[in-house]
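Quick start: load a record and inspect it. Here is Response regulator:
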Amino acid sequence: MENSEKRLILAVDDEYANLFLLKGLLENRFRIIEAKDGQEAVDTALRERPDLILMDVMMPVMTGLQACAALKERAETRDIPIIMITAKTGDESLKNALEVGAFDYVTKPFSEVELVARMGNALKLRDQIDTLKKLNLEKAKLIIELRDAFAQVKTLRGLLPICSSCKKIRNDGGYWSQIEEYITLHSDAVFSHGICPDCARNLYPDFFDE
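Running the structure step on this input writes:
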């Protein structure tokens, strides 16, 4: 796989040894960028927009939980899945991670198989979110186009000045036009010409007298 095709992963840990381990495990599958505390993670995520974040919990300056919460508050980074990495075990750690918006969490020491599997699930979620956002964007665009189209539909309304004798209609420019022409220009109506019974009797009295 070309490097440009690999998904971009932000690995966040204040210990170099842990970052080195993550990079060694994942660099054949992903592009890896690093941050060494929670604040740097937030800044890097806003700048680089990674596909996934691996975040250590206990860090100086800003903890992983605080950084996760900060990222979920920003529209630009809200949809980036975050996997928390912690040495703590138990339901409380999981609860804390999920409450701030983490997608998942793994405990140290972790296996490569487990980590990659959880990352795969998180990336599938990211792809689904991106697809849904694209569909919603296309839907919104279609709604706007339809709204504009309806706004341009020609309609007849208001007071129409019409000659009581010849039945011509005066348009907005002050010109008089045949009623058929005026209605055709200002609506979707299509005319077919015929003759009504009263006019037929007036025009062809001999035919009806027979």
